[in-house]
């Protein structure tokens, strides 16, 4: 049986907290804050912050257009036309301002205000619904920050470990004249790791005790990118070049399997072999640093 994920639990907790707070303050609805909490909750604090910010802006767009529409609505027919035009406008503005992920919540806010603001001042109703949505977003951010704050750290180190193994495997395959399908994915995987690290970095950028660790991981990313360049060059040269005796000895020392046909004493003027072994030497040093 698949286990219940942490994001699942955090989402449920944020929803319950939202509903309880609304009940304490005797809110007329229990809808806006929980739905905002659900739509804001992400795997990391950084992702939730970005999503929550977009939701806030989208919600504001939906609420402002709804308030204007309610003021213009004089009967059922006009109201229906305003709903049609308003939804188009809400979606259009979210897309124009690049808040595409906020379209859903913006449309929900727009509809709830224009459909249920009959006996209340539209401005008062719109602002109260807007504040409830903001509350749900803030609760989701708070829950994400408090519950398992080290989840993003675990993710960073797990992904880094996989990349190290990937670099080792690609380099080993080059030495053995093997194919390297993972080489062509390495750049994208490093970029993905950079994104994961950015989330972790954002969460701890103002905490001095993480400064050294963040700098260390950032340097590891630079080393991984450098390794990617050397590996691509080695892969292109692998068929026509052989190892120098010095590099052969270094690889043996590090327990690498070595294709014997690559072992040779190189002519000093063999430029291609010299370049090939330069990159082999760089890779050995990089792998040690990683």
Structure commentary:
One of its GO terms (cellular component) is plasma membrane. This is FUSC family protein. It is a multi-pass membrane protein. The chain crosses the membrane at residues 61-93, 99-117, 129-147. Keywords: Cell membrane, Membrane, Transmembrane, Transmembrane helix. By secondary structure, the protein is mostly helical. The chain has two domains: 6-146, no CATH class; 151-289, Up-down Bundle (Four Helix Bundle (Hemerythrin (Met), subunit A)). Helix content is 75%, strand content 0%. It has eleven helices and no strands. The chain has helices at 6-24, 32-40, 45-72, 76-96, 103-116, 122-146, 151-175, 183-204, 211-237, 245-253, 271-289. Helix 1 crosses helix 6 (122-146). The longest helix has 28 residues, at 45-72. The chain is elongated and about 90 Å long. The model has no long low-confidence stretch (mean pLDDT 82).
Keywords:
0% strand; 11 helices; 75% helix; 2 domains; Four Helix Bundle (Hemerythrin (Met), subunit A); mainly alpha
What is the element layout, followed by pairings?
Blueprint: H1 6-24, H2 32-40, H3 45-72, H4 76-96, H5 103-116, H6 122-146, H7 151-175, H8 183-204, H9 211-237, H10 245-253, H11 271-289
Helix pairs in contact: 1-2, 1-6, 2-6, 3-4, 3-5, 3-6, 4-5, 7-8, 7-9, 8-9, 9-11
**What structural class should be given to the helix and strand makeup?**
mainly alpha
Number of alpha- plus pi-helical segments = 11
**How many distinct domains?**
2
- What is the multimeric organization of the chains shown? single chain
Low-pLDDT residue spans: none
Order of helices and strands: HHHHHHHHHHH
Secondary structure: helix percent: over 70%
What is the global morphology? Answer: elongated
Rg is 28 Å
Mean pLDDT: 82
Compute the number of strand runs: 0
Q: Describe the largest sheet.
A: none
How far apart the termini lie comes to 37 Å
Question: What fraction of the residues are assigned to beta strands by DSSP?
Answer: under 5%
